[in-house]
């Protein structure tokens, strides 16, 4: 097999997310030609997709040293620099890629995203609007433009872009269909979202994630977001999660770890800590110094890949968190955390029972939920986003029913959404020592 054929095989496997085959093919190419810049660039891309940004950067720098005019390597390099928030350098890499290959849609789309991340939203809109002329069917360009308009509170323009994403990409050829479908009703445009989802489900009735979205759009309440929906949504979101969350001033991990520190001011080290719904590991960054052993559990393989790239956790498990808690030996955890994950549950009774099982007597769970604060008397409510909000009384009732004591409940701002503050409940519950 020629080098080119091997490279093509690798790229095909890479596109199908068969990473093991892809890396084997790229390695085979590099064993014949250690300086093959395309293979190096693809290895860099693969490392970045696994959250190993420092290694990716090193490989891509080397690929660009050998061939500085490879637009694909430049785009991958820009992407890694962007994830490291080195926006000026990323912008230079994209601009050079655009000069070398003006037909490289990703370079245009990402240079717009880069400007947006530097806070140069108007410049980003100019670049992306120009790119839209050249690539009217680029869902990525339209998606990035929509996010810029949202940043400026231009909700109508954002909705126009999102609708165009759905028109040109439908469901199947759209990188973030679930996000577009949940955003449009919030922006006052539910019709096209329902139509595209309805058509998709008529072709793929077995799609459980899509079925969950349909329930959301139809206002049918379910006990929690389905595993299939969580997996698909967060696998899609994993690579941009940290960047997007930083932009909306996401506070949950910091709030949780600050509360742990306030409750344990004596620099306690916890023997066995579990981060529930650990995502890309944002809690892990702050928890690591407090834990002898730090584990994470999450349903999304994509999010776990990013977490594993941070090298913070002693163990990462792919799985559903309530089932995971119940599978642990009784009384084995010294601390559990759960940041911005219970918003995918309606009733919290099963969760609290599972936490009570896994916590040691005297051990604590610290978590956030979105605060349901209006006059109603429903204990929790499913929102148009597919998330749930909870009343304080439900936290207290479900904890008490599971035999847990409420140590404290606080009322912080968690983040912004469409320019509005999202209010949360930050709570700590404890398994009483008397139940030992
Ligand atoms: C909004 S993210 C928060 C991630 C992380 N805790 C943080 O604060 O950055 C929610 C995470 O919870 C995970 N998740 C949601 N429901 C879950 C469940 N029932 N079991 C395990 N993981 C779940 C998702 O896959 C996602 O990674």
TrEMBL record:
The TPR repeat ranges on this chain: 37-70, 71-104
Pfam families for the chain: Methyltransf_23, TPR_16, TPR_19, TPR_7
Gene3D superfamilies attached to this UniProt entry: Tetratricopeptide repeat domain, Vaccinia Virus protein VP39
Keyword terms of this UniProt record: Repeat, TPR repeat
Claim: Repeat is one of the keywords in the record: yes
Family annotation (InterPro entries): SAM-dependent_MTases_sf (IPR029063), TPR-like_helical_dom_sf (IPR011990), TPR_rpt (IPR019734), Ycf3 (IPR050498)
Source superkingdom: Bacteria
Protein name: Photosystem I assembly protein Ycf3
Organism of this sequence: Hartmannibacter diazotrophicus
Taxonomy of the source species: Bacteria, Pseudomonadati, Pseudomonadota, Alphaproteobacteria, Hyphomicrobiales
């Amino acid at each position: 097999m020629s080098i080119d054929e091997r490279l093509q095989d690798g790229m095909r496997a890479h596109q199908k997310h068969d990473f093991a085959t892809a890396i084997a093919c790229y390695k085979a190419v590099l064993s014949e030609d250690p300086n093959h810049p395309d293979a190096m660039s693809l290895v860099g891309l693969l490392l970045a997709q696994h959250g190993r940004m420092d290694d990716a950067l090193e490989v891509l720098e080397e690929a660009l040293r050998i061939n500085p005019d490879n637009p694909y390597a430049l785009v991958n390099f820009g992407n890694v620099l962007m994830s490291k928030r080195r926006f000026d350098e990323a912008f230079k890499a994209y601009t050079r890629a655009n000069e070398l290959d003006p037909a490289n849609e990703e370079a245009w789309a990402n240079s717009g995203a880069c400007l947006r991340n530097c806070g140069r939203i108007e410049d980003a809109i100019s670049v992306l609007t120009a790119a839209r002329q050249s690539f009217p069917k680029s869902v990525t360009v339209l998606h990035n433009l929509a996010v810029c308009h949202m940043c400026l509170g231009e909700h109508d323009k954002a909705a126009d872009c999102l609708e165009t994403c759905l028109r040109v990409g439908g469901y199947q050829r759209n990188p973030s269909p679930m996000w577009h479908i949940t955003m449009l009703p919030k922006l006052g445009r539910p019709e096209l979202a329902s139509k595209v989802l309805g058509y998709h489900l008529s072709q793929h009735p077995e799609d459980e994630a899509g079925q969950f979205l349909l329930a959301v759009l139809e206002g049918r309440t379910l006990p929690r977001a389905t595993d299939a929906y969580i997996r698909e949504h967060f696998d899609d979101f994993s690579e941009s999660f940290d960047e997007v969350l930083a932009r909306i001033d996401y506070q949950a991990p910091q709030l949780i770890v600050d509360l742990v520190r306030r409750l344990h001011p004596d620099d306690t080290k916890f023997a066995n800590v579990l981060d529930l719904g650990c995502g890309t590991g944002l809690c892990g960054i702050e928890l690591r110094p407090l834990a002898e052993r730090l584990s994470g559990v999450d349903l999304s393989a994509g999010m776990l890949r990013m977490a594993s790239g941070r090298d913070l956790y002693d163990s990462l498990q792919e799985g559903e968190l309530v089932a995971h808690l119940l599978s642990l030996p009784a009384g084995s955890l010294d601390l559990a955390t759960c940041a911005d994950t219970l918003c995918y549950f309606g009733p919290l009774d099963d969760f609290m029972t599972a936490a009570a099982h896994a916590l040691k007597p005297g051990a604590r769970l610290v978590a956030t939920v979105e605060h349901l604060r209006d006059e109603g008397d429903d204990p929790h409510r499913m929102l148009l986003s597919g998330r749930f909000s909870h009343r304080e009384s439900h936290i207290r009732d479900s904890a008490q029913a599971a035999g847990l004591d409420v140590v404290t409940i606080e009322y912080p701002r968690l983040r912004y959404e469409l320019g509005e503050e999202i209010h949360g409940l930050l709570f700590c519950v404890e398994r009483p020592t008397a139940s030992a």
